[in-house]
Design a protein that fits this description.
eight-stranded mixed β-sheet, 23 helices
Length: 568
């Protein structure tokens, strides 16, 4: 009795009335018996036999046939009472009775030879449930085909396991086609390789190799899809398609024993097509064009449809940056360069910030682009921070946002993809005017700005006219006076300078001269200029003369170093 408690391989079968003696065959062995489960037990190799039988029986079958089963088999036999009816209630009761008697993680063998004609459907339903939710392994499904005897009159046992296996294949291929769970296909391919495509199986080595390559490629694709890497997904799609085609065309599909193998492989191949990049392309050589934009659009749609909203929203953010770079010559040629992408990101971020208070100054397209970017950033922050805010995150961040459809309609409209605003006034120089005016003198002589924004103290504000005359500077100027040591004065200057900064295309900031508070004002003006999308550059002025010489003769041109050009 201890053996029955320990063993976990169960035969699920059904019994009928009036059993007839039949000669059953499996492989090259035969066995004569009134009941197929008895014949099956004797025909199976010893290491494949079941340890317990669960038999569906009506009241009449339980009385007349079940005792024969118990008498003939040397293993525990347990009846499950069923009704002969087929109402929803009857079917549910039968299923429930079966399922509660099959333990989790059991190994299940089915014999669908006897019983009512609807029993195989019940058995298959039970198998799907047990396999999915109870971690039960379906070993075999046997059917004694009584209507098709061998020439010698014996009834063959047919293995129908492949039909249940096909349901699993259909499920995982569908999940791959819909991209709802690409990992399910990868797991299935790898499990089938482990269980069937073994070194000792009678499958041509080249077919094993090609199948193994397909399973590895599907695994890589699924991992990249889950992470959300659009370029790598495109490369993995191309690899997967190529390897599937090699398996279909050159492999022996009959040897791997998957029904409809070619049809299933074609479904997988077609599903990967929409994301693929040209085969053999290296990431660093990938060209940004409208085709690449639309390829990523398809990937975003797939993420939304499959419920990967974090990936979808995050990729929309990057798609907008890439689409803006397509209209920028420098960006188009280096669209995967981090510094170039950050430059475009600052530009559209500046447009968004500017539009919040100055939308009347923007065109309709610029306002719409700023609004879309604001929506993307808001949704991304809420999703990528997983709702860790005091506000409730609504389902609007979970569903497909309306602005995504609006954005898709604009992808081919080149005129829409321009986040530039303001500008047109050339170069602005921002510099402090300290006790040594020679620094600003040298800056003016070398930068030649259209306007100079001067941060002067009460002590130095009166020196501007002399300095401008000595530097032969005839451009415009705007002198901001402040207490040399008041950081608050510097903040006030920054707050009131937005409209001035946005007019210029380039802002050059002088790092030399003035007090700490005055330099703080210069730094904050530079930061605000960057937030407004201006191109900001930094210079340092070098005068190697002694302080005494500088005081005696301040207007001697020194050296100007553009810090970005110097790699600083």
């Amino acid at each position: 009795m201890d053996r029955y408690i320990m063993d976990n391989r169960v035969l699920l079968t059904a019994l009928g009335l009036n059993p007839k003696e039949t000669t059953y065959t499996l492989g090259n062995r035969t066995c004569k018996s009134l009941l197929s489960p008895v014949a099956l037990y004797n025909l199976l190799p010893e290491d494949e036999r079941f340890d317990r039988v669960l038999a569906l029986c009506t009241e009449e079958v339980l009385e007349k046939t079940f005792p024969l089963l118990r008498e003939e088999l040397p293993v525990m036999c347990e009846p499950t009472r069923v009704h002969s009816g087929v109402s929803a209630g009857d079917l549910q009761a039968t299923l429930h009775n079966m399922l509660e008697k099959i333990p989790e993680k059991a190994e299940l063998i089915l014999d669908v030879t006897h019983g009512f004609r609807h029993y195989p459907f019940l058995f298959f339903t039970a198998c799907l449930y047990l396999k999915a939710l109870k971690d039960v392994k379906i070993k075999k499904i046997w059917y004694g085909r009584l209507d098709a005897k061998n020439p010698d009159g014996a009834t063959p046992f047919i293995d129908l396991s492949i039909l249940l296996e096909m349901i699993d294949w259909f499920r995982v291929v569908q999940s791959f086609r819909d991209m709802s769970n690409p990992k399910a296909l990868a797991d299935k391919l790898l499990a089938y390789k482990r269980d069937v495509i073994k070194p000792d199986t009678n499958i041509p080595p080249s077919t094993k190799k090609k199948y193994s390559a397909v399973s590895s490629a599907a695994k890589e694709f699924a991992e990249l899809f889950g992470i959300g890497l659009p370029v790598e997904i495109g490369m993995a799609s191309a690899d997967l398609q190529r390897l599937i085609e090699e398996l279909r065309v050159e492999g022996d599909l009959s040897a791997i024993k998957i029904l409809l193998a070619e049809d299933l492989l074609l479904e997988i191949e077609n599903a990967a097509e929409r994301f693929r990049l040209p085969e053999g392309v290296e990431k660093k050589d990938l060209i940004l064009d409208i085709g690449e934009i639309h390829r990523q659009e398809k990937l975003i749609d797939a993420y939304f449809e499959a419920g990967y909203h974090n990936n979808a929203i995050g990729l929309i953010r990057e798609l907008i940056i890439s689409r803006l770079m397509l209209e920028d010559e420098d960006g188009r040629n280096s669209w995967l360069d981090k510094s170039q992408r950050e430059k475009i990101e600052r530009c559209i971020g500046a447009l968004m910030d500017y539009s919040k208070k100055n939308s009347a100054d923007l065109t309709k397209d610029r306002k719409e682009l700023a609004g879309i970017w604001s929506s993307v950033i808001d949704a991304r922050n809420k999703l990528h921070h997983y709702g860790m805010t005091k506000d409730i995150v609504s389902d609007k961040q979970i569903g497909i946002p309306k602005w995504w459809d609006d954005l898709k309609q604009r992808l081919d409209d080149n005129s829409f993809w321009d986040c530039g605003f303001g500008g047109g006034s050339g170069r602005l120089l921002i510099s402090a005017l300290g006790l040594h005016p020679g620094f600003l003198y040298t800056a003016l002589r070398n930068v030649n700005p259209e306007l100079c924004l001067v941060i002067a103290s009460h002590e130095t504000v009166g020196r501007w006219d002399e300095l401008a005359r000595m530097a032969s500077y005839s451009g415009d100027f705007d002198v901001k006076e402040m207490d040399a040591h008041s950081f608050d004065d510097g903040k006030t200057i920054v707050v009131n300078s937005g409209e001035l900064l946005v007019r210029f295309d380039e802002v050059v900031c002088n790092l030399t001269g003035g007090t700490a508070a005055m330099q703080y004002a210069v730094i904050q003006l530079a930061r605000r200029a960057e937030r407004l999308g201006r191109n900001v550059r930094w210079i340092a002025v070098i005068d190697n003369r002694s302080i005494e010489e500088q005081n005696l003769n301040p207007y001697v041109e020194g050296e100007v170093v553009f810090l970005e050009d110097a790699g600083i």
